[in-house]
Amino acid sequence: MSIYNDEVFQMACDQFQVIADYLQIDQNDRDRLMLPKRSMAVTLPVHMDDGSTQTFQGYRVQHHLTLGPTKGGTRFAPNLSMGETAALAMWMSWKCALANLPYGGAKGGVACDPTKLSRTELESVSRRYMQEMIPFVGPHTDIMGPDMGTNEQVMAWFMDTYSVYQGYCVNEIVTGKPVSIGGTEGRREATGRGVVYLIERATDMLKLDPKKCTAIVQGFGNVGSVAALSLALNTGMKIVGISDATVALYNPNGIDVAKAEQHVIKKGHLRAFDEADRVDPNEMLTMPCDVLVPSAVDRVINKGNAAKLKCRILAEGANGPTTPEADLILNERWDELFVIPDILCNAGGVIVSYFEWVQGLQAFMWTETEVTDKLFRILEHSFAQVIKRAKAHKISHRTAAMAIGVERVMKAKHARGLFP
Ligand code: GLU
Known about the structure:
Elements: H1 7-22, H2 27-34, E1 38-47, E2 53-62, E3 70-77, H3 82-98, E4 104-111, H4 119-133, E5 142-146, H5 152-166, H6 187-205, E6 214-218, H7 222-235, E7 238-243, E8 248-250, H8 257-267, E9 277-278, H9 281-284, E10 291-294, E11 313-315, H10 324-332, E12 338-340, H11 342-345, H12 348-362, H13 368-393, H14 397-416
Glutamic acid (GLU) binds next to strand 3, strand 5 and helix 12.
């Protein structure tokens, strides 16, 4: 599959094959389940502030359309490729199916560094991307949401561009919008809150007192910052390590996360925050803590450091933070390391996106308390199913979570049959 040629796509396929072997999926079904239904690559010419025209590459992958429209985030990152987008779309499929959402997975994005674009340039890239995608997306075909490098403002530009072309307001085309234009209360915090809810379920099961626990959170974007803040404020956990793309910080006495957040709001990054020691970002992952929350990029837990992790709970806020080779090592450490796999751990975002889509379609509103309650109920159900399956079949939490997702998609494909 040369158009998807990419290490992250290979990793998503390798993970799928592990599940396919465990579920004894017929060879005839494997490619049908694994390979994306359709993928689009677009070239985006954009006027830059200096008068030049720059072209950017954009992608959108719709992994399967068996259960409903596809759903997934939009990533703005310098090295984004078709293969990585396809891997992320595949993970969205298993994530949505595990949470029982009526979606296939999708992912898209633009290969660009949003931190190097002016606001006008970012708006132009965002609008041009949505404009090029209009033939392929729609509230009943494919609904975009936020991901790394995008935010509420980008979603607002997407929604506006799509709506202008349709001639009326279509707020259900995009989720993660500002509340002022049909966004859902609590969507921005949803992923981080979900991560913390599941960490609390894990500390419960392990009989750990959160107030006596320490945590290290990698990544200080929409997921990491909310997770760190909520772990500190709501559970009383001591946050000893935080990081972003510019710096990794460690303080065994605890970091004031609210202060760090204020710093990031002012400066845009953590770099000059001086209330902790600077440490090597990779070494931070293997420093002693009870809870490790990788909430940045993929493949940070690999065969080089999996044996060295000193945490008791690994809560995967990012997509694909752990490689299959690392999984083999973590599986052997099952009695000392409790893994909350990504498709369960970070599902809060897409679950609340689903609420936002439903609200948009029905022109309906829920309060933040109602949204968060419903979110926790879905996460609780998914968590319970994963733990039950893992115990009953003596398999890892990741295998259990993915197997539940893959099985649901397979069942739906069999029920619908093959056309013609
Ligand atoms: N980007 C988020 C994820 O990876 C959610 C995307 C959405 O809300 O559609 O799960």
